[in-house]
Amino acid sequence: MSGDCSAAFLFDLDGTLIDSVYQHVLAWHRALEEAGIELAVWRIHRKIGMSGGLFTNALLRETGLTIEPGLIEQLQRRHAEVYAEHSDGIRPLPGARELLAYLTKAGVPWAIATSGRMLTARRTIEALGVDPARVPIVTRDDVRFAKPDPDLFLAAAARLGVAITDAVVVGDSIWDLLAARRARALGVGLLSGGYGADELERASAYRVYQDPLDLLQHLDEVGVRRQ
Amino acid sequence: MSGDCSAAFLFDLDGTLIDSVYQHVLAWHRALEEAGIELAVWRIHRKIGMSGGLFTNALLRETGLTIEPGLIEQLQRRHAEVYAEHSDGIRPLPGARELLAYLTKAGVPWAIATSGRMLTARRTIEALGVDPARVPIVTRDDVRFAKPDPDLFLAAAARLGVAITDAVVVGDSIWDLLAARRARALGVGLLSGGYGADELERASAYRVYQDPLDLLQHLDEVGVRRQ
Prior knowledge:
alpha/beta, 6-stranded parallel sheet, 10 helices
């Protein structure tokens, strides 16, 4: 941490600030099924949060199918459509708005870094009450490689003007934590994406909290002194 | 195990033989939201597989709401309706049909024991190609207390005419494994319901496999000699 003890926070979006993982999982399941690809739902859940391209590659590899760029693009488009149809029921996670408001008020820099595209992320970010004109938001569109590559978090730290080694990455999936580790940030896990605590700890989470509310209540454990 | 070394298998249904957990989770989420109860999806996932009454009690307790019997009944009815609307995309898990066929052919007794009601379970059981006239199926309707109480598995063993201590309980949730332990059966966990291996092991799973196919390929580890 730097001399003035100000950490910075880099947040994943889906499953970390917004309660959207299960809807994404079932939208992928539907898109795959429509393309004639049968894959158990839990296997999709375990891959979600990776870069979309890597994700479809990984899923197709598990099914033993040939990976055609046209198919991957078709699946991604259909996933986005099905997800949009079901996005009415999607809400911020408990404490998400309060956590972001607290950090802003305390002068702690924060940004959002998501493997999703801005097209899908925009509505989600609006639901959080976040103004994209005032908060750095790094999406898949901005970097060459998404998670588990470190690029998204490195870009987010650069946008904040903080050293990545002073940053706390908060995410719900092992891909967030692996990307945090590669970036040399401190990774903190949340259970709100539906992964078990041990999965996150084995991916080198420094601490694991239930959801943004639980993190807000324990900010002093990750380097923010409550005022 | 008895002298003729024949184990018996007692299977949970949702998440163990059929790929339906995530659809059940989102159907509960919708039913709760329609009743004005906001609850993060992962918390519903972590409670599913319990008896329906216990489940709604537990969820309402987490929200701090008063538990009215009328509300619980309304939620259960609405969940069943929403689930039925989305049950088109629900498939047997990989290897489920093959595992059951193998056990039948090998003369190993097996039964199904589910916390669900027969009304919801019937379609699922048909999708598995199981004939309820030939296989003992114990549902919530048959016992006083569902999982994590041991009653469902005890009743299933009794229907098979085997000692519960000779039975292997196969389930995807910690409620299956806790019920297995209370019943004094050997509990085996599957990852196909979306829980992590450590959650199942901490609930005293003797072994954890990915799905029914993986279990079929490792039956000799749980007391069935492959022929």
